[in-house]
Request: fold
Amino acid sequence: MEQEIQFTNYACTLKIKDELPGIITQYGEAEDHVYSWKNVLLETENFEEAKRKFHLYYEQIRKTTTIVKGSAIRLVADYTEPDDNKKFNDIIFDIKSEDDVIKNAVIDLSLQNEMSEWKITVSLYGVDDEHEAKQGDTDE
Reply:
């Protein structure tokens, strides 16, 4: 879709039901293996609608489970109520499994105000070991 010196954007073939396709971004060279995924879920001028949908998406993500390499995966995060006085509200879900088949990755659900419009996005990206150390004790 787009190529710059430091990144390349690709159209994603994974499609969330009733949503537009997301974007996969590759950072650096292909051999660096640094990627992220992002999908816009909602764009609206109505904060109350955005707030309601933000909570709905939180619940859907929180209840999502899957199996990766034979290990059950669950997503863990506390809900934070959006505030229309803040331009940016987000919830970071840690990916938990019995044997850590997925390390250093999070799901980020964000609600932000951009030029009088509220936008909800969901992203998957890698994090550094410092984040892991801070989040390591949040098991539910």
